Fold this protein.
Amino acid sequence: MEEKRMTHYCSSHRILLVGEGDFSFSLCLARAFGTAKNMVATSLDSKRVLELSYKNASMNLTELEALGCTIAHEVNVRTMIQHSLLKYQKFDRIIYNFPHAGFVGRERDEHQIQLHKELVSGFLKNAKHMLTSNGEIHITHKTTHPFNLWNITELAQHEGLVLVREEMFDQHLYPGYNIKRGAGSRCVTSVALDGDDNDRVAVIGVNVDLVCVVNMLKKKFCSVIILRASQIWFGSKLIGWYKQVDGTVMEDVGAP
């Protein structure tokens, strides 16, 4: 079969995608290649949670499976090297788009930043052992404050990784890819009855998909009232690679 390419990826690559949301990035690559037989796509959430959180998840998963993709759910990037499906495999490309540890506080809070750093460190600690001799790890990351405080380059160096170069991430090069902000269902922090007669349901969270929440609640209740909402805007994005050269793992990170 003729080799097909999309930006930094080609159909002959063994590709592992982690932390997928609605699996639209995986599907974008699979459609470009005409096959996903060399791809393994994973999510932290269960299949059921994904289907409840993302309206296109089920359809995307079905198409990926038809294209030959291996799919696994409830895969933790900090322990993935021990996963029964992954522990004996090596990959040419390992992709983690917009890693996020979930909302515990505001993005600029020190504790929140530390959680993100621990997530990325754990991912790198696992991923560097899952590469082929010429393999690369790709991380897409926001570069504006406070996301720059994650200091991914330093985290990579701590794992024996070296920055090679930076490159702009252009979403338009990946048709069909929908960036899912935050941590999916984990953005909802509480759901409780509210009002004097307990005739309301208060859904509290950060970066919640309000349209999704309203549509889901309308299936259960006659009316839906949004009590409070907040919105977070993201700035520039960074795409990153980590590469093994002569036994040394090197990072190639892309920037806006």
User: Anything to note?
Assistant: The radius of gyration is 19 Å.
